[in-house]
Amino acid sequence: MTRTLPEEATVRPAPVRPSRWSRLRRSLRSNWQLYLLAAPALIFFLIFNYVPMYGAQIAFKDFIASQGIWGSDWTGFKHFERFFDSFYFWRLLRNTLVLSVYQVILFPLPIILALALNEVKNVFFKRFAQTLTYAPHFVSLVVVVGMLFAFLDPRTGLVNHVIGFVGLGPIQFMQDPDWFRHLYVWSGVWQTLGWSTIIYLAALAGVNPELHQAAEVDGANRLQRIRHVNIPAIMPTVMVLFILDFGSFMSVGFEKVLLMNNSLNSSTSDVIQTFVYETGLLQGQYSYAAAVGLFDSVINIILLVGVNQLARRYSENSLW
């Protein structure tokens, strides 16, 4: 009696997964035109954004220009401790945080304007409103601050003339510390509000019209369609821009603060960026200024990573 033995199963070796470098070479060969287009931008960022990081080490040294970076002596965290123990630390940190939080609170304004413009049916009025709100973006920052000084001058300013007509005395807007933050933030809103709506209007243009038609069939009014159709559609864009804004949370606009700063309002206008400028460029304390600037950058990185992690945990939108 013969026994039929089962055929031995053929064992096939698992496919070898290509290495990362081989996948990169294959991608370079197949998409070399795209990499060629991206190369100038990558080279620009490499040279002007990453190579200068080499000089950040002077924050841990007593930098002397004649000795160079490598010839200067290491001091560890001496300059950081000096900054943390200084009289200016808490004032600079408080002023920077207050201005940053003030601007974050007003983050929804471009979204509200974009939602409103998207609902305008009159083409002429819509274009006129867009032009009116976009125009301030192209006004120089120096001109904007000059306009503030001109309109708010206690003797010749238009605003104080109007205040005088109602029987009130002139107000020292540009010299009063209590007015600095409001003038700084709201003049920035006036200058950037319209331009910031462009991205949101582009996102709203991509909303499927069938969603609005279905909502109308279900009896939704205009506000309900905005709430349940438009806002969810642009939420990924909102989250990405919000996270990017937090990446520069501690980086208050240096040039504008410097232009508006004076000895009378310095109690609220002194921020970390102006302190770095005055300490480094005006006083020549390069290592100390580098330490303060590095502290500011590290805080920004921590906030960026933290906000991105929160966004990824509680929503489906994040930078990475």
Automatic annotation (TrEMBL):
InterPro entries: MetI-like, MetI-like_sf, UgpAE/MalFG_permease. The chain crosses the membrane at residues 32-51, 97-120, 132-152, 183-208, 229-254, 286-307. Its main location: membrane. It is found in: Cell membrane. One of its GO terms (biological process) is transmembrane transport. Residues 92-307 form the ABC transmembrane type-1 domain. CDD domains: TM_PBP2. This is ABC transporter permease subunit. GO terms for cellular component: plasma membrane. The keyword Transmembrane helix applies. It is a multi-pass membrane protein. SUPFAM superfamilies: MetI-like. It holds the Pfam family BPD_transp_1. PANTHER family: BLL4140 PROTEIN. Belongs to the binding-protein-dependent transport system permease family. PROSITE patterns: ABC_TM1. Keywords: Cell membrane, Membrane, Transmembrane, Transmembrane helix, Transport.
